[in-house]
Amino acid sequence: MSRIFAALAGAAVLAVPALGFAQAPSQTPLDVALALEQAFVSVAEHAAAGVVTVIVDGAHIQGADIPEDAEELRRWMQREKPRMDPFQGMGSGFLVDSDGTIFTNAHVVAGAQSIEIVFSDGRTGKADVVGVDKGSDVAVIRLIDPPKNLTLLPIGDSDAVRVGQFAIAIGSPLKLAGSFTVGHVSALHRNDVGQRLPGVAADGFEDLHYQDFMQVDTPINPGNSGGPLLDIRGRVIGINTAIYVGGGGGIGFSIPINMAREIGAQLAATGHVRRGWLGIKMNPLDPDLAEIYGLGEGSRVIVIGVEADSPAEKGRFQEQDIVLEFGGEAIRTVNDLTNAIANAPIGEKVPAVVYRPDAANDGRVELTVVLTERPKREPTRPPPAVAGKKADDDDRVFHRFGVAFERPAGKAPKGAVISRIRKGSKAADAGLEAGDVITQVEDTTVSSVDGAVTALVGSTRPFVPLKYTRAGRTKVTSIESP
After folding, report:
1. Catalytic-labelled residue, pool 133, 137, 207, 436
2. Which range marks the domain in which residue 122 is found?
3. What span, in angstroms and rounded, lies between the C-alpha atoms of 177 and 118?
4. In a designed cystine with 335, which of 148, 191, 352, 453 is the match (CB 3.0 to 4.6 A)?
């Protein structure tokens, strides 16, 4: 079996001089600058041999839901091969054990049919996919015939990373192998990047459900993906994953190495990652509703659906519960709760606290759940395109959100009745169902189908709050805007 665990736990630290703010009396400012420069040069000299270029020849189907398990992926690709479009891609990676195990990004090797590895000295080799985890964008690949005396990069501790420290990237941006760039850690624990920054450049970024990014101003570009982010001692503190292409640039995101190490170890051992499953649908709570309930500032998470026979149902979760804590962690965003569920132990009792408006004790209800492993999703084929149909406002709503409306019949309450929901759409994720009556979008009261369409199409919010009725009961949710 791969020696990945030992390599990640016991890798030696590169011999790079420690730097401080103090200046010895005999040192000049130039001496200090030269010492800093030598530190960067030492990292470049020692680490470059452990960084590789990953060249992928593959095929994909636009919009298809691709399986993550390596063996299932091979069978799926063989079955769907006639429908696939060929492509060639390039990214980066780094060696973590003497068996030739390489960490990279899932989006770098997605759809790979063959993988070529190029070392810093020009040697090449072939690699196979061991496992991918689309939810975190971590992938593990392994050299088929690894050469001897591989250079392994020492692994740091991302929990010890501080904002302001140096952050160094080595990789193959824009096909320029071995590029070395320096910046700083700008922020930690970014977990809602897809909501705040829709201009993030990384294929499959919409699948990143497990986010805890380090934000850096280190220059990184397409091709850096999968490469290491290093500290000034040459230790890996992250995997470079994405950049923000809007505004003035200077914003990149890296997966903390502690998170990647745990995921990579599971991928190397079994080819997939075990995560806890609760069985709820959730959305951000509208701030106005949070204020009405007296929950204070900041986001909260509202339960908009509980699956039958799920851990959530057995643990007494209910629709419209507002989740305050899970597994001892305070919950303020959907990603907070997603990560807390994924990291909680499977098969053990996990505490949770929800706010339930009609409950005693100021609405706070303590629950206990026992999570099971997340069930595997069956891969799906993309829906066929509909040709020759005019795209009016209603079509745009169905295309963007996956919801269509009809007018209420007879003496039904005013609003827009949902006539159909596209499976897997944003509307479905929001817990909406056919027959629900939309009565409010943001602050606008909806009295007709046209009103619902106009409000949804015109909204600029990343999550659009809705009020609707189902079986005579008023509910709230929010629907993500693509």
Report:
1. 137
2. 1-272
3. 9
4. 191
Burial 22-32 (b: 16+ CB within 10 A, else e): eeeeeeeeeeb
In a domain, 380, yes or no: no
Catalytic residue among 107, 186, 299, 478: 107
- One domain, residues 42 and 84: yes
Q: Which helix (H) or strand (E) covers residue 393, if one does?
A: helix 393-401
With cut-offs at 50, 70 and 90, classify the pLDDT of residue 218: very high
Which of 265-287 are b and which e, b meaning 16 or more Cβ less than 10 Å from the residue's Cβ? bbbbeebbbebbbbbbbbbbbbe
How far is Cα 305 from Cα 433, in angstroms, rounded to an integer?
A: 11
Look at residue 199 and tell me whether its pLDDT is greater than 60.
no
99 included as an active-site residue:
no
Q: Which residues of 288-319 are buried (b: 16+ CB within 10 A; e: fewer)?
A: ebbeeeebeeebbbbbbbbeeebbbbebebeb
Query: What is the distance of C-alpha 209 from the center of its chain?
Result: 4
The number of distinct structural domains making up the chain is 3
Q: Which of 158, 225, 254, 478 is catalytic?
A: 225
* Nearest-angstrom CA–CA distance, 435 and 427: 13
Query: 201 or 99, which is more confident?
Result: 99
Q: What is the pLDDT of residue 286?
A: 79
Residues 327 and 342 grouped into a single domain: yes
Residue 381 placed within a domain? no
- Distances 150 to 79, 127, 184, 276 between C-alpha atoms, Å: 37, 15, 29, 36
Examine residue 387 and state whether it is found in any structural domain, yes or no.
no
Contact (Cβ atoms closer than 8 angstroms) between residue 87 and residue 62: no
- CATH number, domain of 402, equals 2.30.42.10
C-alpha 91: how far from chain center: 18
Count of other CB atoms within 10 angstroms of residue 398: 20
**What average pLDDT does the segment 303-327 reach?**
92
- Residue 425 falls in the annotated catalytic set: no
Burial of 470 (0-12, 13-18, 19+ CB in 10 A): middle
DSSP 332: -
Q: Strand 213-216 and strand 179-190: pairing?
A: antiparallel
Return mean pLDDT, the chain: 81
pLDDT at 421: 87
CA atoms within 13 A on the CB side of 256: 20
Contact 371, 344 (CB under 8 A): yes
Residue 184 is a catalytic residue = no
pLDDT tens digits, one per residue of 115-138: 999 999 999 999 999 999 988 999
Predicted TM-score (pTM) of the model is 0.69
Of 373, 401, 425, which one is at a domain's C-terminal end? Answer: 373
